[in-house]
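Case study.
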Amino acid sequence: MTRDLAGDDTAVVCPSRLHRSGATAGLPSSAADTIGQANRGTRETNLDRPLTRWPDPWRVAVIALATLILCSCRGPSQRACDVSPLPGPQQAGLPPQAYAAAQPIDGAWSPPGIARPWPRDEYLRDGGDEGLPAGVIGTQWEIFGLEPADTVAHFDTLDGRTIVEPSNKVHIYSPRFGAVRKIDSLASNDGYERVVGVHLPTVIAGPTSTQLVTSSKQNLQADRQIGSKSAGVYRTRWGDGIMATTNRPREYEQDMFLPYENVKVIREGIIDAAEMAHLAAGATAAIAWTADQAVQVILDEQAAMSATADEKLQSVYVVKAPPGDPRLRVIKVADKQDAQPGEEVAFTIRFDNIGNQLIGNVTIIDNLTTRLEFVPDSGQCSVDAQFFTEPNEGDSLVVRCEIVDPLEPGEGGVIRFRCVVR
Amino acid sequence: MVHKLRCMNTKELLNERRVATRLAIALLLILTIASATPAQESGVHYWHQGAMPPGAIGSRQLQRGGPLPGFFQPVEIKAPPGVLVSLAVGEGFDEPQPVPLRVGMLIGKVYRLRVMNIPLHPGMEVFPTVEIIDRLYAPPDRQQRFAIPIQLTQEELQFAMQGKFVTRVIYLEDPRNALPARGDPNAQNWFEAGPGRDPLAVADALGRPVAILRLGARLPDDKQLSDPHFLFGSPPWLKYPPATAVPAPPAASVEPAAPVEGEPAP
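After joint prediction, the assembly is written out as follows.
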């Protein structure tokens, strides 16, 4: 049969053809001849015209492509298969638990891998420096890159530099709603209802096989625990050989510290580990204490650490501040974690010179977001300062507080102002 | 007659097979990625319109995933003073409640309301529907404080009684693009969707749609009032205690000028 098809001895025999012709190898000779005769008549007819059939690999690819397209296509009507806008009467009167297919998640939740606060459209952010980093140019301290809701401070150093330091971020849960309305008038009151979707349950195509565990791994128990512990109290001001004292802010004109400000870092500029959780509530407002946003003990961007073992202290890391290293720490807290439109929110900014040299022209700038309206004459500062306000691009204000006197190492102060949530 | 088979040689065949195999693998990867995208698509309702039947958008929202099923989203129904509102229960309506009424509603379900005692229209009733299509993620113990406001204004109730169909899409504002306006805290800012424009698409552009209020254009008879189809199956809801109204802060009053030194104070 192969000879009949090939005919010519010089013809190149295709492997696929050989494979196909071998299909009758196992048949009796009479049956093979019968099939061969039947095929021969057909082949002769087909061979009279040019062979236009695609090669096997292309046919396989086209079939696979068509199968994948058909499997992946889901039209909008099919997506709405489970739509049941008109549930049956049997659903009426069921207890609420009957509708809860799974345990509902109440309260704060964020998708895996996404940090809180989430979603961002439910929170008001104030503080930090998002987007283009803020900078100062010129002799008039013109600042650029200050987007709405950014809070930064800039100061001049003894060597003539102007450094910008952002504050931490404060998030306040304050969703605000709007509505879009459309009014349609009916030309006729005749109406008909049609089925929106049908319920089409999916049938299991095949059984699922479960593979048994063929090997197991012995979990080894840790023989000891090594933990790192942040420094509880940071109070080193030994840069010049003299322990500098942290100045306590003088009393305000109207009152003393507010309850939400009653943390050591606000009162005295000293971070106490025991108050970190309380500080987190005011600083980051309704989010968990996270390393990227929380206020920590920062020395040259290295946290002072001590490694502790089971019983004895193994090693202590000492961070030495190089001379001539000006630094300003800006901490911002709010008195509320959530606010409705119309409520007032009080902000407190604590600034400290944590460097080892004198800094001057300290200016704290808060570019209020669109939904925060500055309460006039609400700005206070524990040191001599001047408040300025100017409109920003979000129809709100830029609050600018210029500290009059230079800050010695270890010196700091507190700024307070209030805003109304729009 | 002798025919010569026009078959490719082995080398060309292998090249063709290699190309076809690579093409199939590439298509398989593309389609695999494309099939996974619906679960990650953003919250924008590209495929939806505000004119879709009640329940269609919310049900589709449930298919997008997330912690939506089984969650009772607090909703605050507001209306002009004196209005009574009742929700569908079983084959009828619950006892009329004064507004503001704070309830918890399931996402994706449609709730039929009965609004009565409308000012200046005694005896008239309106039967709007509320469809919750998304939820809020308020901090713990703050869900009821931050409920989605469903506002039934006097004007829209009158439109409904005139036979017009009012669609009101409530959306959550994006604070980055929020309207810099400080109005009445108990009133809701709203926009009018222009002719030919879809209110859901407009709300998508302004924020995140969370609820749809539809009212008017249908007057049920006595038999339909107990029809489960008219009541959308009377899905369950939870009743919460009423909230205390947020007091409006005092407006920025003009302080009297400080007395000038040397002059008597007024």
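Observations recorded in class. Chain B is about 20% helix and 25% strand. Confidence is low (pLDDT under 50) at residues 251-266 of chain B. We will return to this complex in the next lecture.
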